[in-house]
Write a structure and sequence with these properties.
The protein is mainly alpha-helical. The chain has six helices and three strands. A hairpin with a 5-residue loop joins strand 2 (36-37) and strand 3 (43-46). The N and C termini lie far apart (66 Å).
């Protein structure tokens, strides 16, 4: 058996990832990892699930949601250790997700000291940039921070 296909009990997986057993069960419930069952009903995980869970932890630290993480992990093969080519494929998709997130963070940084176009008109400056609540025509929420240009309302 390939070492990556070696089966680990949930306690050992917890020890290797730093996650609690209950957290691993939660991630299993969300589809991030998939346990195999022994004849006695005990969970066994592939050694390669260490990498899957590590990826999930890193992705959560940078603000990715569990559905986003699950979508990326779904691109990896089940039942075998992902190859470097498999990880390259997932990293390409994940890079695009990160690029979108970085762009959103940069927009937020650039608009923090100005009107965020929320439509509240509570700031004196909003009367200049969002006269008559024009930003509300494009939808709800902080329109400028979400990338709607204030000069597009002219």
């Amino acid at each position: 058996m390939n070492r990556g296909n070696e089966l680990l009990p949930i306690g050992e997986l917890a020890a290797r990832t730093g996650l609690s057993v209950s957290a691993i069960r939660f991630y299993e419930e969300k589809g991030l990892v998939q346990a195999l069952r022994t004849a006695g009903g005990q969970r066994r995980f592939l050694r390669s699930d260490i990498r899957r869970l590590s990826f999930a932890l890193i992705a959560q630290q940078i603000g990715c949601t569990l559905p986003e993480i699950a979508a990326e992990l779904a691109k990896l093969p089940q039942g075998r250790t992902p190859t470097p080519a498999d990880w390259r494929r997932i990293s390409n998709g994940f890079s695009k997700l990160l690029d979108r997130r970085i762009a959103a963070l940069q927009r937020m940084r650039d608009t923090l000291d100005g009107c965020i176009g929320c439509g509240c008109l509570s700031l004196k400056k909003c009367g200049l940039y969002n006269r008559g609540d024009r930003a509300a025509r494009t939808g709800v929420g902080p329109r400028y921070a979400l990338g709607v240009r204030w000069d597009s309302f002219e």
